[in-house]
Amino acid sequence: MNIFEGNYKLSNEKVGIVISRFNSNITTELLEGAKDCLIRHGLNEKNIDVYYVPGSFEVPFLVKQLVKTKKYNGLIALSAVIRGETYHFEVVSNEISKGISQINLTSDIPITFGVITADTVEQALNRAGIKSGNKGFDAAMALVEMMNLNKIIKD
Ligand SMILES: Nc1c(NC[C@H](O)[C@H](O)[C@H](O)CO)[nH]c(=O)[nH]c1=O
Ligand SMILES: CC(=O)[C@@H](O)COP(=O)(O)O
User: Fold this and answer.
1) Complex-level ipTM
2) Does domain 15-150 bear CATH number 3.40.50.960?
3) 137 lines ligand 1 (CB under 6 A)
């Protein structure tokens, strides 16, 4: 059996989504994409909990706390970091990326990365469902596969 070929049909899994309010005009679209993907794969919307944090920098903290609750089969991090005039873009982008990666390495549930890091608002909008896909949908699709794989390994 090829363990990487699952039926990808969700049932009673619980998913938590941590979303940044910063650039909410974009992150809201990421959330819709993520929920669309999960529901299309059979998850009831009542099994999806959404947690809002101020910005990308705060996302890893809440993801870490949600892992500790042991309530969820998987978590999704959603945010949008858009370059301004200073080095702050690099700092924020690197910290959320590093933070989610580090939590993944010690967590027994998968956490996927639906974070847009863009030079312009147009680039960000295009990746939130306008022209270049939806990073929220993509992160949810990755979580569907990872939860399926995690379940196979644990069974
Ligand atoms: N510039 C962006 C931020 N900055 C805010 C930080 O994430 C953080 O909330 C603040 O430094 C307080 O700790 N956040 C984003 O999500 N996107 C940005 O473009
Ligand atoms: C990514 C950011 O933190 C950025 O939006 C902040 O803008 P600025 O670098 O002009 O302060």
Assistant:
1) 0.97
2) yes
3) no
